[in-house]
Amino acid sequence: MYTLEILARRLRLGSQTMAYPRGPAPSLPDRHGGALRLDSARCTPGCTACADVCPTAAIQVGATTVLDQGRCLFCGACHEQCGTGAIQPTGDHRLAVRHLADLRIGGDYGAELRRAEAMGSELRSLLGRSLKLRQVSAGGCNACEADLNVLGTIGWDLGRFGIQFVASPRHADGLVLTGPVTDNMRLGLEKTWAAIPGPKIAIAVGACALSGGPYGSQTAGLHGAPGTDIPFDLYIAGCPPHPLTILEGILRLLGKVPGIDT
Fold first, then answer.
1. Does residue 248 lie in a domain region?
2. 114: closest CA among 237, 215, 9?
């Protein structure tokens, strides 16, 4: 009788896992503004208000204004200070790119970032159905790491896509980097990468991994992904990136997001 009650309760609960990507993506919380949009044509000549308040020097003002979302902490100070509405949060969770330069917006870069394309068909055929990842925190604060952990919960269920985090790099198909890559962790990170058998992929998650984070421009001992010899295949911006941002980026790389090259 007790077993029947358990089964009945389980049937009433139904599936607790989100339908995405086959269904609509859940909305980001209000405090998470998502990707930014920059219309340089709306900037007032000579105005540096947004750059003056940026804590990571992510905004450069010259002939046109350029914002690097790889350095951005998405604190909101820039668009709060912008009197013309040139910088606006879009609420879009999609912040994954194949090249760091694609995270720059404004001027010749365009108003919005260029989103990641799927990796080549040969790698997709090898890794698309079963992808094992070794995560390395190279000096992070544990915020990005926490959001990676969320992907393993019942609401997200990363395993339904054949994606799993493993303990040993010898069992992995790829590396996930979080943290700013401190001097003390740089060698360990590169040894982990060397221990992963090929073919393999590398993914950098969060502002610290992409640019060194809040102190990247001020501290010589922080390197970020660009300061390593690892050829990264995917960069996911955010501080920290929302779990949906991370999931979408990985699925986009694997060609599992509807509407992109599969």
1. yes
2. 237
- Beta-sheet pairing, 104-105 with 131-137: unpaired
Q: What CATH number is given to the structural domain containing 214?
A: 3.40.50.12280
The average confidence (pLDDT) of the chain is: 92
Question: In the β-sheet with 65-68, what is the strand arrangement from edge to edge?
Answer: 59-61, 65-68, 104-105
Closest CA to 204 of 250, 256, 164: 250
Q: Is residue 111 part of a domain?
A: no
Q: Is residue 30's pLDDT more than 70? A: yes
Whether 52 is in a domain gets the answer no
- As a whole number of Å, the end-to-end CA separation of the chain is 48
Task: Name the domain count of the chain.
Answer: 1
Residue 235 pLDDT:
98
Residues 257, 248: contact at Cβ < 8 Å? Answer: yes
Task: Supply the pLDDT for residue 259.
Answer: 62
Furthest CA-CA distance within the chain? 76
pLDDT at 247: 97
